[in-house]
Amino acid sequence: MTLTLSERFTAWVVDDSPMEAEAVQRVLEASGDVEIFLDGATLLERISLAPLPDVIVLDWMLPGSSGLEICSFLRLRWDEAELPILLLTARGAKADVVEGLSAGANDYVSKPYAPEELAARVSVLVRLRRAHLRALRAESEVRQRETDYRRLTDNLPDVVSRIDHQHRHLYVSPSVTRLWGLPAEHYLGKTTVELGMPANQVAAWNAAVDAALRGREASMHFDLSSRGGLRHFHSRVVPERDEEGNVVSVLCIARDMTSQVRAEQALRESEERLRLALEVGKIGTWDSDPRTLELTCDARATVLFGLKPERKAHPDHLYEPLSPEDRERVRAEVDKALVGENGGLFASEYRTPLAADGIERWVSVQGRVFFDGQGQAVRFLGTVRDISEGRRQEEEARQMAEFQEKLVAIVGHDLRNPLSAIQVSAALLARKLGEPSLLRKLHVISTAADRAGHITRDLLDLTQARLGGGIPVRPQPCELHAVIREVAEEHHAAHPERDIRLDLAGTAEGVWDPERLAQVVANLLSNALNYSPPGTPVEISSQRHEEELVLRFHNQGPPIPEEMRSRLFAPFKRRPERSAGPRDGLGLGLYIAERIVSAHGGHIGVDSTELQGTTFFVHLPWRSPAMLVLDPEG
Questions:
Q1: Tens-place pLDDT, residues 500-547
Q2: How far apart are CA 566 and CA 402, in angstroms?
Q3: Do 492 and 617 contact (CB within 8 A), yes or no?
Q4: Residue 47: phi, psi to the nearest 5?
Q5: Banded pLDDT at 87 (limits 50, 70, 90)
Q6: DSSP states of 214-241 as a string?
Q7: In this structure, what is the dihedral angle of CA atoms 141, 143, 145, 148, given to the nearest 10 degrees?
Q8: Domains in the chain, ordered, with CATH?
Q9: Of the candidates 348, 323, 321, 352, which has an alpha carbon nearest to the alpha carbon of residue 333?
Q10: For the residues 1-23, what does the mean pLDDT come to?
Q11: Pairing of strands 283-289, 294-297
Q12: Which residues form the Histidine kinase domain (predicted)?
């Protein structure tokens, strides 16, 4: 394409005379966008930040660096084709012209100049630069096409080969190396027999090639061993013709179908596993089209939904066997899924009292709605499972648990009053009777009543935790070390032969329920005394942290069995090994302690080894959640 001055170009004019620079601008501005620079330094700064102009019109005489020096500097980076430079000079001697061109100028114009000459010379330089850029782009495109072709050939998973009339390979693509480890040149000039193709596949290969040599396309499947094991190929064989239409060779494109074959095999195996899983799990499947209201159910789903096998299924038929309450609920849940609520997921449980086989069932239905690009429901599918037995077991378990909890509550309340009477009466008699033998008997009565009282209290706490909504705590400002010392003194009075050691530095003032935490300390201290050898110390220590207070209850003795640790804080769980002594509890102490600590926003941990003994850690935040009542399920 011929460039004319009517096509916009960019020209930078460098001249220390604003008047002469503007004169050049007037000549060029009709066809180009002109930017003026009054010195070389400004030009050099600009050219380092902006795209190159189409041409630079450079005055010979400039302040500071001359035009020749600027030209020489620019040529260190850009050649004459990349950045054309037209030199303006009032020096017309041949030596000056030679000097200017030697410095790197493409052309020059002597002052004074004719505007037409300046415009013509600039136009020539712009055309030359544009032609150079087009050549560079064309060269780049050619290189890119060559690169793309090589990349396509080198990375094409298909094996492309050209076969002559003697069944010899004229060309094989590089992909063959990845499959068999041999260079493509290894195959040239050889037939499939010479290359070792199995005899049972050679006949099929030759038949396909012969058909293509006769002008017909052919295809075949074959299996070959490779470095990665047995691979499966599908080959398409087509004739290659010359200008006269004669078949001169055959082009074979062998596609590696191994992944597809393996995927199909895996799909078949997966479908078989799914079928077996559905069969074992007694799960039915269903599929529907919300647009056409077509419903498809397998045999099990038909029975579980209470549908009639001889009747064409319709989504509305699913609601017919349901009770009025279930019908409205399930229909509303389906409608929500169909409009995309909860991501189109559907889950519901209901009874089918009018099932086709006459059996009342509970079923669990799970499904998902799929939507098109416009948000319209196009498919709704899922599973249905018979959960009647699970429902029955849940109801039986619920009734049994309710019976047990109510029984515990009744026993706890009924025992508390007579035990209180026994304790009060024993205390009154002890004050009036001074005979040692009677006092010992009263002590036995009082101790037994106290033990029964602890059991009753634990039963009532369990009842509150499991039925009453949790163990209530009433936080208030208190000093916990004083609580611990008081509990330790009570236990030492009951066990004077045991060494109870306290390491409680300073004070521990926080917002807790002192009575409940005294119960925690008592339970953990009793636990440590019960499960440690006689004559060994039991230690209680505390450690202050910024966010919490940590209590440690340590005793020596055998470690807690590993299988017990996961259920150590469950109710009615007792470690099998313990020191000699009466069984004064129901295995509720650790459970109640853990519930109380959790109600304070803390937690209990345990570390138990043969060498170090057993340590229970109680982590208590300095401020408990106000009047928190713990969820009975934790």
A1: 999 998 889 999 999 999 999 999 999 999 999 999 999 999 999 989
A2: 25
A3: no
A4: -70, -20
A5: very high
A6: TT--EEEEEEEEETTEEEEEEEEEEEEE
A7: -130
A8: 9-137 (3.40.50.2300), 156-262 (3.30.450.20), 285-386 (3.30.450.20), 392-461 (1.10.287.130), 476-621 (3.30.565.10)
A9: 348
A10: 78
A11: antiparallel
A12: 410-624
Tokens 């799914």 — which residue? 274
CA 323 to chain centre: 42
pLDDT for position 55: 95
The DSSP annotation for 601-621 comes to: T-EEEEEEETTTEEEEEEEEE
* CB of 323 closer than 8 Å to CB of 351: yes
Strand 294-297 and strand 345-351: the pairing is unpaired
* C-alpha to C-alpha distances, 452 to 138, 411, 438, 459, 589, nearest whole angstrom: 101, 12, 21, 10, 14
Distance CA 482, CA 502 (A): 11
C-alpha dihedral sign at 264, 269, 274, 275:
positive
Q: How many CB atoms lie within 10 A of CB 41?
A: 14
Is 387:349 a contact under the CB 8 Å cutoff?
yes
Between CA 271 and CA 258 the distance in angstroms is 20
Q: Is the pLDDT of residue 356 over 80?
A: no
Cβ atoms 551, 517 nearer than 8 A: no
pLDDT at 378: 92
379 dihedral zone (left: phi>0; alpha: psi -120 to 50; beta): beta
Find out whether 429 and 445 touch, Cβ atoms under 8 Å: no
Which of 35-44, 83-92, 562-571 is modeled with the greatest confidence?
Answer: 35-44
Q: Please say whether the beta carbons of 630 and 598 come within 8 A.
A: yes
Query: Stretch 451-468: mean pLDDT, rounded?
Result: 59
169 vs 420, more confident: 169
- Which pLDDT band holds residue 214 (cuts at 50, 70, 90)? very high
Q: Do you know the residue count of the chain?
A: 634
Average pLDDT over residues 549-576: 85
Strand partners, 231: 224
**Residue 159: count of CB within 10 angstroms of its CB:** 23
Residue 179 banded pLDDT, cuts 50, 70, 90 = confident
Higher pLDDT, 184 or 477: 477
Please give the backbone phi and psi of residue 272, each rounded to the nearest 5 degrees, phi first: -70, -40
Q: 480 near 607, Cβ under 8 Å?
A: no
pLDDT score for 632: 42
Give all strands of the β-sheet with 613-621 in edge-to-edge order: 500-503, 538-544, 548-555, 613-621, 603-609
Per-residue model confidence (pLDDT) at position 613? 94
And the tokens for 346? 């559907």
What gap in Å lies between CA 583 and CA 509, rounded to an integer? 35
Give the contacts of 590 (CB within 8 A, at least 6 positions apart). Answer: 523, 524, 527, 568, 569, 573, 604
- What lies within 8 Å, CB to CB, of 100 at 6+ separation is 60, 68, 71, 87, 89, 108
When pLDDT is averaged across residues 399-422 and rounded to a whole number, the result is: 62
What per-residue confidence (pLDDT) applies to 579? 47
